[in-house]
Amino acid sequence: MNFFLVLNGKTIKQVLLVVVAAFFTAWFLFLENIIHIPAFSGNGEPKAIYKGEKDIALTFNISWGDEKAEPILDVLKKENVTTATFFLSGSWAERHPDIVERIVKEGYEIGILGYDYLNYRELEEAEIRKDLSKALESFKKMNIKDIKLIRAPSGQFDQKTLRVADRLGLTVVHWSVNSHDWKNPGTEVIQKNVQKAKAGDIILLHASDRANQTAKALPGIIDNLKKKNLKFVTVSEMIANTDTATKEVQ
Q1: Which of 148, 169, 174, 199 is the most buried (most CB within 10 A)?
Q2: How much is the mean pLDDT over the chain?
Q3: CB neighbours of 152 closer than 8 A, spacing ≥ 6?
């Protein structure tokens, strides 16, 4: 007995749609299993990390003042956020060793925000090295060792910065989500700026005295991230044991 399968045009289209959908689903699942840390870099040059593959990293820059850092630490403690990364300028750390001690004691990671607040793009390599080395020495005197991360003080960097950092055994860290909290645009605006954050993002916040609204905005930011079931990690934890993708830096 012979059987014949008759397919009309509508049935063929439905079958093709199912096949195409299955193909793209498999492709996306494949891509999700490839772990990459996006990074700024030139070809064959050292890299600056700006985004991870999973989890979320809160980072705080501090370069001056002594009024805003501790309220932010209070909020992190109250909200039970035990992992974050603080990028501190060496000159600020020297003036406020008590706050630095608290940051370390409460288990947060420390990175360098240079020594002085300089634009590294405007400096020669020798000047960048001098600034970073001075910062490293400051933290060493405070018995804070094994610092592996730096952030360009003004956020401006180029291949010179990447080369110097690499020679000092440091990784340059940028960010993928900018809260713009230093502009003091209002608590709700700061929270909205961070609301788009997703797995792998490195969030830029400030704990210097100019950031008047960060502490008030922080509980809402943390609550939103927790609702997304994102795990808080340090930058070092985020980038550990991963491959990197790159973008060119001039």
Answers
A1: 174
A2: 85
A3: 114, 120, 161, 172, 174
What structural domains does the chain harbor? 36-247 (3.20.20.370)
Residues in CB range of 112: below 8 A, 6 or more apart: 87, 88, 89, 90, 132, 135, 136, 139, 147, 149, 150, 151, 170
pLDDT (tens digit, 9 = 90+) per residue, 66-99?
A: 999 999 999 999 999 999 999 999 999 999 999 9
Give me the residues paired with residue 48 across strands: 40, 172
Which residue in the block uniquely carries the two structure tokens 């940028």? 174
Measured from the Cβ of residue 170, the count of other Cβ atoms closer than 10 Å reads 20
How high is the pLDDT of residue 145?
86
pLDDT of residue 171: 96
Neighbours of 86 (CB within 10 A): 25
- Rounded-to-integer distance, Cα 112 and Cα 183, Å: 22
Q: With 70 as the cut, is the pLDDT of residue 240 above it?
A: yes
